[in-house]
Structures are given as C-alpha cells and as structure tokens.
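Incident log, support desk, overnight shift.

02:14 A customer reports that sequence design results differ from what the structure should imply. Their input is reproduced verbatim below. On-call engineer (initials T.W.) acknowledged and began investigating.
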C-alpha cells in the first residue's frame, strides 16, 4: 500500500473507515487536559464498551427486584444466561454453538481441557509448546506433566518422563518460529506426542500461527491439537471448526473488552461433543439441564462444550461480555480484520519511516502471520524510551528485556492514533 506520513493522510484514512464510529462506543482514559490517551494495550486489557454499565445495571436491578427469583424472572433469566452469549462468542472464533461455552478463566479452562484431552499413555506422552509461551501456560502444562508423573510413581511405575516437554525455539538469530520447523518437529516426534498446545498469536512477538497446518500435522502424528487463543480471539479471523482444532481456550478481557478478570471462552470440537468416556472434572453446571435440579448423585454431562462447565457462572461478568460481544456481532470479525490489517500496516510503515537504528520490529511482516500487535525491539534498552513515550500520553506495554508492544485495535483505534504514536516515538528517539 502507498501510505503517506502525514496527519492529513491519517485523517483521510479515518474519514474513509466504515468502522470509525465504533470508537465513540468505548470509554477512554483521558490525560490532564481531557484528551483521550493513545491507547495501544487492547492486547492486555480492552477498553470498556459504553453499554457495559447498562448491561451490568440491568442485572443489579433485577437482583434487587427479584432476588432468587431472578434465576427465572430476571429480564435476562440467570439460569440460561450463558446461552445468551454462545452464538456471538462462537461467531468471533469461527465455531458452532455446540462447540462453544463461556466459563471460568483462561488458565483454569486450560487445566480442565487438559484433564480431558491430555491423555498420556505408553510411548505417547509428550507435549509440544512454544519456548517462551506465556508463563501461565507453561506452569499449567508443566504441572499437568507433574500430575501424571506423580500418579505413575504412586502406582509404582516409573514412566518415561524425560524430555516430555518439547519446546519450539526460533532458529539462531531469528525471533519467530518457522512453520516448516514446527511441522518438522511434530513429524520427527510423531508417535511420542500426545498434545500440541500453542498460542494462536504469541503474546511477546505477535506472531500468528498457521492453525490449519499445525492442526493437520498434529493429527497426522496422532496427537490432539489445542490452541490458547488469548491473543487471537477478537484479533484474527479464526475458523476453529473449519481448521479442525480439537480444543481452544481464551480470555475475554484482552481484545474482547469484557473487563478485568472477565469470564473466559472455550471451544471443544463437535467431534468430541459426546466423548463421555473421557475423564473430566465435573460439576453440576455441566449436568444435563433437564435433570440438573433433580439433584441426583450421578453426573450426566451435556453434549458439547457446555458439558465441561462446573459452576453456576458469574452473571455480572457475563453481562459485561454480552455487551461487548454484541458490538463484535455488529461490526463483524471479517470487517474488523480487514481494517486491522491496514491499521497495523500503517503503523509498520510509519515506524519504518523513523530514521534510527535503535528500534526493530520483531513481529512477522506477512499480514497472515500477525494480528494487530507489533512488537518493537529497542536496542540498548533501559526502559527510558518506554518511560518517555508514556510521559507523552501513550499507553503501551513494556516486556522485559527489551520489547515495546503496541496493539492498535480496529474497534477503537484510529489511523490518527497510529500517526500520533509514531510522532511521539520519533520525538522520544531523537531526544
Ligand atoms: C493473558 C494470557 C493468560 C492469562 O491467563 P488468566 O488465566 O486469564 O490469568 C494466559 N495465557 C496466555 C497465552 C495469555 O495471553
């Protein structure tokens, strides 16, 4: 694209942007003079949709008015409340409603899904992850390995657990993984891999993985393939069903704007909808709806992703997510992604215009291999550049040892935001 490095050009892109008005539906922090900050951390905590307050207030009012009877008589009855979110959530990740549920939080869901889908046996017990995967995912995976190991020990069997974790590492001198290397690793270890569990978009580098190729390679090796879509949901145009992913989990407070600690999402492929043979940690909310309140002793799980629910869910959190998902439905993931590619390409263009050796973009250049985030490596980093841009009204994110992450989101960031950000960065680098 032939971009121009000027405020007028950025304003012209905004004027031509069919999604531009969505920006007004979000609440921005403002600086001392009442100006909206340059907010580039939708990858960490998305902004509050203006409708959230009304949605949450509805439930507070109904709680006051109906108390326990709100389960059935609230305007949006609490008993089936999670069902009001399923269609829009499924749409965001390219899933069928039967494959989608909102529940718990992300790492908890990864554990619950691994209970069912990480089934080491015989020689097949390895897990493939990214080296430098998000710490919570590493802890979750390692503790699952440990859990199985201790069980074997307790049963007097010393299983083969050496090297049970395969960590994908970029080639020397490279920052991101090559798809050919990922597929080759999966093939080489074929009959020893039980689970491939990757982030859809790496939180640090912003690299988006080829879900389809990885899933295919994993399945050919006889493994289960899951994705952590924390940085992919609401960012990429996902097709979890079509790509035949086995399971996925994501949080909703990043690109999905559902507020701090928001209730998370889960995908379980329709293929597994009736895998009642798999072990699962059960609770009453996963029990067949028709008979749940007969309060029987025996657990009869529902078909599909819903059957993995455990507890009755937090209505106030779901109300916030519901408000946000309605905006996604209205805007459409495909339209958002179309804008996002241009918005991020514009940021990339402006960063390259800055004449300096001090910064380097480590996120892949190929738009297919990234979402909206660009990770900017700062040479001889000492945090001072980051402090300077923060001082100038930018909310971005610093990751040790030397990366600034900037994520212009298509729902509420403008081309002018991106332009202003590049000016701030340039000015701070010149100082
Ligand atoms: C944000 C994020 C998490 C956070 O997990 P919570 O359980 O929501 O605290 C975990 N994994 C990845 C990849 C993330 O990006």
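02:41 Re-run completed on a clean worker. Output:
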């Amino acid at each position: 694209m032939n971009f121009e490095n000027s405020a007028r050009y950025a304003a012209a892109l905004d004027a031509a942007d069919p999604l531009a008005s969505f920006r007004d539906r979000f609440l921005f922090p403002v600086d001392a003079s009442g100006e909206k900050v340059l907010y580039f951390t939708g990858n960490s905590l998305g902004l509050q949709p203006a409708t959230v307050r009304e949605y949450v207030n509805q439930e507070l009012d109904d709680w006051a008015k109906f108390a326990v009877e709100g389960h059935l008589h609230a305007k949006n009855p609490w008993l089936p409340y999670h069902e009001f979110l399923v269609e829009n959530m499924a749409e965001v990740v390219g899933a069928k409603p039967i494959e989608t549920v909102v529940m718990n939080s992300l790492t908890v869901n990864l554990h619950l899904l691994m209970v069912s889908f990480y089934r080491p046996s015989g020689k097949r017990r390895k897990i493939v992850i990214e080296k430098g995967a998000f710490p919570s995912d590493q802890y979750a995976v390692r503790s699952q390995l440990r859990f199985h190991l201790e069980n074997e020990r307790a049963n007097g069997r010393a299983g083969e657990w050496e090297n049970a974790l395969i960590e994908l590492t970029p080639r020397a001198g490279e920052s991101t993984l090559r798809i050919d290397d990922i597929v080759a690793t999966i093939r080489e270890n074929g009959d020893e891999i039980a689970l491939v569990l990757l982030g859809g978009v790496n939180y640090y580098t912003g690299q988006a993985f080829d879900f389809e190729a990885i899933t295919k390679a994993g399945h050919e090796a006889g493994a289960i393939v899951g994705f952590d879509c924390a940085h992919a949901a609401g960012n990429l145009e996902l097709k979890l069903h079509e790509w035949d992913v086995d399971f996925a989990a994501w949080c909703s407070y990043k690109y999905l704007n559902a507020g701090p600690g928001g209730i998370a999402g889960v995908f379980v492929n329709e293929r597994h909808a009736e895998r009642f043979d798999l072990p699962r940690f059960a609770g009453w909310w996963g029990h067949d709806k028709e008979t749940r309140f007969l309060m029987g002793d025996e657990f009869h799980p529902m078909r599909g992703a819903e059957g993995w629910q455990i507890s009755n869910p937090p209505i106030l959190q779901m109300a916030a997510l519901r408000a946000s998902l309605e905006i996604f439905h209205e805007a459409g993931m495909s339209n958002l992604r179309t804008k996002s590619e241009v918005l991020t390409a514009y940021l990339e263009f402006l960063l390259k215009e800055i004449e300096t050796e001090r910064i380097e973009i480590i996120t892949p250049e190929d738009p297919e291999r990234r979402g909206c985030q660009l990770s900017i490596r700062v040479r001889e980093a000492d945090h001072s550049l980051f402090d300077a841009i923060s001082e100038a009204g930018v909310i971005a994110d610093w990751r040790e040892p030397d990366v600034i992450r900037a994520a212009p989101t298509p729902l509420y960031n403008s081309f002018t935001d991106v332009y202003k950000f590049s000016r701030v960065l340039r000015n701070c680098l010149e100082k």
